[in-house]
Design brief:
The protein has 309 residues and is of the alpha/beta class. The chain has helices at 2-12, 18-28, 42-52, 56-80, 83-93, 95-111, 124-141, 145-167, 172-186, 206-209, 231-237, 239-246, 269-274; strands at 193-196, 214-217, 257-261, 277-284, 297-303.
């Protein structure tokens, strides 16, 4: 903490408590809520099951085992009325109970905040592995065929899930930007421009292009001073009208490339025909679109008059 304060003092030229600023901006001011809110039970009902996947049954079993043993000790302590002393001793020497308490505090703290994301509880993943490891080990060494098969199934389910989510799920935006980078490299002499008509934060930007070209995306910063217009919401409310206003009367030239989801394509058909855009690439994105503005494919359009014929 001290080193962080000192480094910030050197580079900002004044004393700044970044940790408090983060807490004040996102929690006290509630600006993080701009990106969505969920009910208090979301981490329990959805977050933890999705993050843990096949490890969830083992976690529940481990929690039940730990609490059963703790209840048994407290039952014996009741005879001598030493609840607090027994609990303190158990907490000090029982590492599994310590880990369980850390997981509980992590989930509870984040559940109190309206804005929730899966990534916020990723720190509990290694803790749950440590917590469930003894139970998995006991099942494995039992040599019981059913128990061993269950352990193997835990590994296979995670392996298959990792393969799907790392190699297939939501890869379209990455593939489209990769295609775009290759197209830019092949036409470096041209003055190219790109407009991402995707929900904000759905595609990488200059970090994947590595070229000095004009690029735009739909803005969606928090409305701090009540003067900002969320382009993302306005565009998806009426894509054709939004594009007509932005590129009206040919005062602003349309971009060379447009990248968007396939579900948006029919909604800007007039704009495509007017400026002679053609589809040059289509990349698979997901089998499970998680919103009305997200499609199964990412489409790349290019103005035909900018293409070599």
């Amino acid at each position: 903490m001290a080193s962080s304060l000192l480094i910030d003092r050197i580079f900002y030229g004044k004393w700044i408590f970044v940790h408090y600023n983060f807490l004040h901006f996102n929690v006290l001011e509630g600006v993080a809520n701009f990106y969505g809110t969920h009910p208090w039970h979301w981490y329990i009902s959805q977050g933890v099951p999705v993050v843990l996947l096949s490890w969830l049954p083992m976690l529940l079993f481990s929690v039940w085992t730990i609490l059963f043993k703790l209840a048994d000790k407290m039952k014996h302590a009741a005879k001598h009325k030493k609840y607090l002393a027994v609990f303190k001793k158990t907490l000090i020497y029982n590492h599994q109970l310590q880990i369980l308490l850390l997981i509980f505090i992590e989930i509870l703290a984040h559940s109190l905040l309206p804005h929730k994301e899966f990534r916020f509880i990723l720190p509990i993943l290694p803790l749950t592995v440590c917590l469930t490891a003894p139970s998995v080990y006991n099942l494995w060494k039992s040599r019981n065929r059913i128990k061993v098969l269950f352990c193997v199934s835990l590994f296979l389910v995670n392996l298959l899930a990792a393969g799907y989510f790392l190699l297939l799920h939501q890869r379209g935006t990455l593939d489209s930007v990769k295609y775009l980078r290759q197209a830019v490299e092949q036409n470096e002499a041209e003055d190219l421009s790109v407009h991402f008509l995707l929900p904000c934060h759905h595609a990488p930007f200059y970090s994947h292009i590595h070229r000095n070209i004009s690029m735009e995306f739909l803005q969606c910063q928090p409305n701090i001073d009540d003067t900002y217009i969320n382009e993302d919401e306005h565009f998806h409310a009426s894509p054709s009208d939004w594009l007509a206003r932005k590129y009206s009367n040919f005062e602003k030239d349309p971009p060379t490339y447009i990248i968007l989801y396939d579900v948006t394509l029919p909604r800007i058909d007039d704009f495509i025909k007017r400026y002679k855009f053609v589809k040059v690439a289509e990349h698979f994105h997901t089998h499970f679109p998680d919103g009305p503005n997200i499609g199964r494919y990412v489409v790349t359009l290019r103005r035909s008059q900018d293409m070599d014929v």
